[in-house]
């Protein structure tokens, strides 16, 4: 009853309290997103265990254990900074790339990215070099990225053309683009199982259709047999695009803001 009385006597919750809770919740959520799938998860569990032991020792008056933890915690913080310096640096870079800091120059960056994609696709098409480039939009493609070779390199025409050269070890697979970065190459994508798809389509076109059926990504496909450029969105294939048409369609489709949500993993390969 005393606990209930104290609870009812608490001061009323204000809008500032709600804002405080929302901000802290968002920060915790973003922190969990950053460390998910990294070694920082195991380290965070270890630190949480030490913190739990600290309060456990205080509650049950375990003086020796409490003294050890209090003298040990400083070294834990220092060791965490040393061990996770790469992850901390990546987190700060991720913060610097946040949309709130890129809002003013996002349009110019998108136009430059689109131009690099168009030039690369047209160059590959002129040489009849097969290629598939998947562009992330609002739904993340992390599962597909993890199936390939991580690059995290600035997107350029030269890089894309080099990746898809027949002698390149990365040419047999898809390139995934996030913003103005090439996230990974040689990625595995799911093949579509739609029975209405033409049997004349090769594995690259089927993979492009398959991945866009599962999320809102956009895929550029260059046919190795004909050299034709195609664009796939929401499982719909646009055949035989010229340079101007490809540029126009990409400008229309890539204006949608990206939020980095993940999708389920797929395990089909293609040639």
The CATH homology group name of the largest domain: DNA integrity scanning protein, DisA, N-terminal domain
Largest sheet: 7 strands, mixed
Number of strands: 7
**Separation, N- and C-terminal Cα atoms:** 70 Å
Biggest sheet strand line-up: 2-4-3-1-5-6-7
Uncertain segments: 256-271
Helix share of residues?
40-55%
Q: How much beta, percentage-wise?
A: 5-15%
Structural class assignment: alpha+beta
Q: How many individual helices? A: 11
* Rounded average pLDDT: 81
Assign the CATH topology of the largest domain: YojJ-like (1
Based on the coordinates given, report the CATH architecture of the largest domain: 3-Layer(aba) Sandwich
CATH class categorisation of the largest domain:
Alpha Beta
* Shape estimate: elongated
**Over the alpha carbons, how many angstroms does the gyration radius reach?**
25 Å
Q: How many structural domains in the coordinates? A: 2
Q: What series of H and E elements makes up the topology? A: HHHHHHHEHEHEEHEEEH
Commentary on this structure:
The protein has 11 helices and 7 strands. The protein is α+β, with helices and mostly antiparallel strands. It has 2 domains: 2-96, no CATH class; 105-253, 3-Layer(aba) Sandwich (YojJ-like (1). A 7-stranded mixed beta sheet has the order 2-4-3-1-5-6-7, with helices on both faces. Strand 3 (174-178) and strand 4 form a beta hairpin. Helix 7 (106-126) packs parallel to helix 9 (157-163). The longest helix has 21 residues, at 15-35. It is elongated, with a radius of gyration of 25 Å. It starts with a helix and ends in an 18-residue tail after the last helix. The relative contact order is 0.11.
